[in-house]
Specification:
With 353 residues, this protein is an alpha/beta fold. The chain is 35% helix and 19% strand. It folds into 2 domains: 4-137, 3-Layer(aba) Sandwich (Rossmann fold); 154-347, Rossmann fold (3-Layer(aba) Sandwich). The protein contains 11 helices and 14 strands. A 7-stranded parallel sheet has the order 8-9-7-6-12-13-14, sandwiched between helices. Strands 2-1-3-4-5 form a 5-stranded parallel sheet, with helices on both faces. A two-stranded antiparallel sheet has the order 10-11. α1 packs across α5 (114-137) and α8 packs parallel to α9. The chain is elongated and about 65 Å long.
């Protein structure tokens, strides 16, 4: 693995020293700089071009969320981990950070000696940094696509009315999901969503979408039956797959190994969708880093299912949708504001004779 060049942005000199000690203990990391406020953090990131940024939230001049938004606007592919006492499971600040494209979060340890804190960060933070970096590396090469990317010929697309909507999404997902679901009318089919998100946040996201849109959105529970018009969201730290059942297909949750450095991951969900629904599956891949969903979309495509992706212009990161589009698996790449119409056009089409 190449050396990971890290930038720290935190107004606490103690935290900066602690993180420096932790990073220098691992030969895979190289600390390229440290900013003491948000404004300096932005300047250093643009100047030093790090591979990864560790970012505090509560800082002078620019807070961490403002820095996050600015850096993602300048370089959507830059992995950023929020590192703050304000980022906790289910907190609105953390949900906002994930909506803006934060790739992970880590709550600053609040107890223990300096030595205990350093050991804890070596044990828990360093593997998270490596996972985020590897996930970002898997996106390399998909952003400078040829203008005429390989497309699926419309005459080869089977006119089968979809019986399920499956959505995969990662960085920037909460806002994209809110826009999409707000624009969608009541669905005639069940819908399932895998959003890359840590445990403790998916319920907050489901509750938020449930109140902010006109749809019933809940965090999936093992054994849930798919119901037309209802969205089930994969819980953090669990893969969500489907199981056939005469009384109605059901959701099954598992903690099988992460795929594409993620759990939940989109690929296992799509494989199970293709197995049950085949050509009557409709898949939508939204903004996200990495290539999770690509292999699953290959299975969906082979089974004759339909695939749509969010376009590059409206994606926070065009890793996941870009990789699917580059492979020629998607019928269309559309603005997040146009996807609802494209989905409903397919769901309302008449069954081919």
């Amino acid at each position: 693995m190449p050396l990971i060049r890290v930038l720290i942005v935190d107004d606490s000199s103690v935290i900066r020293r602690t993180l420096k000690t932790v990073l220098l203990s691992d030969p895979d990391f190289n600390l390229v700089g440290a900013g003491c406020d948000g404004k300096e953090g932005v300047e250093l990131a643009l100047k030093l071009k790090p591979d990864l940024v560790i970012l505090d939230v509560d800082m002078p001049k620019m807070n961490g969320l403002e820095v996050l938004a600015e850096l993602k606007k300048k370089n959507p592919e830059l992995p950023i981990i929020m590192f703050s006492s304000l980022v906790q499971k289910g907190s609105l600040i953390t949900l906002d950070a994930i909506s803006l494209g934060a790739d992970d979060y880590f709550c600053k340890p609040s107890t223990g000696s300096a030595e205990e804190t350093i050991e804890l960060l070596k044990k828990d933070l360093l593997p998270r940094l490596k996972a985020v970096f590897k996930k970002n590396q898997s996106s390399s090469g998909v952003f400078n696509l040829p203008q005429a990317a390989k497309k699926v010929l419309k005459e080869n697309i089977k006119s089968v009315t979809p019986k399920i909507l499956a959505i995969g999404v990662s960085a920037g997902g909460p806002e994209a999901l809110k826009i999409l679901l707000t624009a969608l009318p009541p669905l005639p089919v069940p819908a399932i969503i895998t959003q890359h998100m840590p445990a403790g946040f998916t319920k907050s996201l489901a509750d938020h979408l449930n109140t902010q849109t006109k749809h019933a959105v809940t965090e999936a529970i093992d054994g849930d039956t798919l119901i037309a018009g209802k969205f089930l969201l994969a819980p953090g730290d669990y893969h969500m797959v489907l199981e056939p059942c005469l009384a109605g297909n059901k959701v099954r949750l598992n903690q099988n190994p992460p795929e594409n450095y993620c759990r939940p991951a989109v690929d296992p969900m799509l494989r199970s969708v293709a197995k049950i629904y085949g050509a009557s599956a409709l898949t939508v891949i939204l903004t996200g880093m990495g290539q999770d969903g690509l292999e699953g979309c290959k299975v969906i495509h082979k089974a004759g299912g339909k695939i749509l992706v969010q376009d590059q212009a409206t994606s926070v990161v065009w890793g996941m949708p870009g990789s699917v589009y580059k492979e020629g698996l998607a019928e269309e790449a559309l603005s997040i504001h146009d996807l609802a119409l494209a989905i409903m056009t397919r769901l309302n089409q008449k069954q081919a004779l």
